Amino acid sequence: MTLEGDLGGFVRAAWPILEPATPFSENWHVDLIAEYLTLVRRREIKRLIINVPPRTGKSNLITVMFPTWVWTQEPHARFICSSYADSLSTKHSIDRRDIIGSPWYQQLWGDRVTLADDQNLKTEFQNTARGVMVATSTGAGITGKGADFIIIDDPHNPLQVLSDTERATALRYFDTALSTRLNDPQRGCIVLVMQRLHEGDLTGHLLAKQGWEHICIPAQAERDEIWRFPVSGRRYERKTDEVLWSSRWSTEVLDRFKNDLGSYGYAGQFQQRPSPAEGGILKRGWWKRFDTAPEKFDQVIQSWDFTFKDSKGSDFVVGQVWGRVGSNKYLLDQVRGKLSFTASLSAMRTLSTRWPAARLKLVEDKANGPAIIDALRNELSGIVPMLPQGSKLARAQAGAPEVEAGNYHIPNGPMGDAFIEEGAAFPNGANDDQVDGWSQAACRFRTSTSGIVDYYRGEAEPSEQVVARAS
Questions:
Q1: What is the mean pLDDT of residues 44-51?
Q2: Distance CA 387, CA 311 (A)
Q3: What is the mean pLDDT of residues 54-68?
Q4: How far apart are CA 202 and CA 221, in angstroms?
Q5: Each residue of 373-428: pLDDT tens digit?
Q6: What is the topology classification, in CATH, of domain 284-467?
Q7: What CA–CA distance (Å, rounded) separates 85 from 152?
Q8: Is residue 403 a contact partner of residue 372, using CB atoms and an 8 Å limit?
Q9: Tell me: the pLDDT tens digits for 325-339?
Q10: Which residue of 98, 423, 446, 464 lies most exposed, with the fewest beta carbons within 10 A?
Q11: What is the rounded CA–CA span in Å between residue 198 and residue 392?
Q12: How many CB atoms lie under 10 A from the CB of residue 72?
């Protein structure tokens, strides 16, 4: 097979141009990704997401060599290649230009791919067949630019991805700018390559929309895997705990990365899972599960977290009923949904009717909370505004020791499963409304039993034993 039909062979032949002092290191994942990209060039796959650990050759293979390889067959093709930073996208552009201008490339394909003298910049260059390669970055203007292939390589800055604002900027840039730049929406192709950094990162955002082919390769296998190569039909069997690239990493090396990055950073960047398998701050195994709750409680309370907007975006309204017996707390009921202001009022009325013993109703004094309080204060007794102090993370960390001690009990079933999964993903999850409801209740339990004022300010509540049943 000629190099024009063999991206894997092209990568090996071009490698010394980019890395003259570093020999090419063979590994199965290079050929797997090359075969998927081959289907992209054939337009058999038009939307592809590749999640791989850092320093696995992803940028050289996907962002640098794939476009230059496509030009050997389609010199007229146009590319837009984007990264989170100008400096990174510019480096990739210079690397592409270095390959195309190399004696090796020109000797083989110089008759069809010659860079145009009048359009040969670091961030945008054109060949004499009118093929174009444009480098851009998250948030940069690309009005007037069009492409047959769009490649997005690391759209998020790892140091800023926990910021809702920074993350939203990257998602909005894709939705409103990059995704509209295909010359032919029917044939145009988009490839996203990144390591996972947050459940709400661009990978999570696009997978929720469906229609994307997804390759997700962890640094260390968490179960037995069989990888099927889509062009050659080759199979690679990977055993549990097998390291992705044994010539570069050992288990000891990965353990050092885990220690340096922490469980969250390692789970996302190396395992392609934005929360550790056991969970992060609130580990899955810490919560106790129950089928039948006690009949009598020392305290029964409601805890409400109201959204900033009505039924749009990713914000949920959450209302929870918690009961305490001694040091043990039980999640007895929960309302969760994307509710309008009117529907939120109705939900609070309904939960209060269903659980009359939960006379204390904690409402976070933010978002729609103050308006809810004003609307229901004279109708429902016991509504107490709670002003959060400190970050969401700090409030969850304050309650985590009691969860670890086995003092929090969650009902078996879908509601409990969803609650625990959100806690395991926190603070990197797409949503945190259930965690917010829990941390508010957890703080109230601490302050009402110990007198410690901790992360929330609210009014006092008398202690009494109550019988709690849903009516």
A1: 97
A2: 23
A3: 95
A4: 23
A5: 999 999 999 999 988 877 888 888 889 889 989 999 999 999 999 999 899 888 87
A6: Nucleotidyltransferase; domain 5 (3.30.420)
A7: 11
A8: no
A9: 999 999 999 999 999
A10: 464
A11: 16
A12: 19
Domains of the chain, by residue range, sit at 3-269, 284-467
In the three-class reduction of DSSP (H, G, I as helix; E, B as strand; rest coil), residue 201 is classed as: coil
Integer Cα distance of 222 and 193 in angstroms: 21
- Tell me the sheet residues that pair with 320: 303, 334
Where is 318: in which H helix or E strand? strand 317-325
Lookup: tokens for 327: 């040091």
Q: Which two tokens mark 75?
A: 């010199």
Structure tokens of 240? Answer: 């549990």
| Side-chain-facing half-sphere of 7: CA atoms under 13 Å | 29
> What pLDDT sits at residue 463?
40
- Report how far Cα 89 is from the mean position of its chain's Cα atoms: 22
**Amino acid letter for position 302:** Q
Q: What is the DSSP string of 373-408?
A: HHHHTTTSTTEEEEEE-S-HHHHHHHHHHHHHTT-E
Q: Is the pLDDT of residue 133 over 70?
A: yes
Distance CA 252, CA 248 (A): 11
Closest CA to 72 of 11, 163, 160, 156: 11
Dihedral, CA of residue 348, residue 350, residue 354 and residue 358, to nearest 10: 20
pLDDT at 461 over 60: no
Instruction: Check pLDDT > 70 for residue 279.
Output: no
Sorted by sequence, the CB contacts under 8 Å of residue 96 that are 6+ apart come out as 64, 67, 68, 81, 133
pTM over 0.70: no
Rounded to whole angstroms, how far apart are CA atoms 15 and 191? Answer: 21
DSSP state of 285: G
Fold observed for domain 3-269: Rossmann fold (3.40.50)
Domains 3-269 and 284-467 share a fold: no
What's the CA angle centered on 17, arms 15 and 22, to 5 degrees?
60
Rg (the chain; Cα; Å) = 27
How many Å apart are CA 220 and CA 242, to the nearest integer? 5
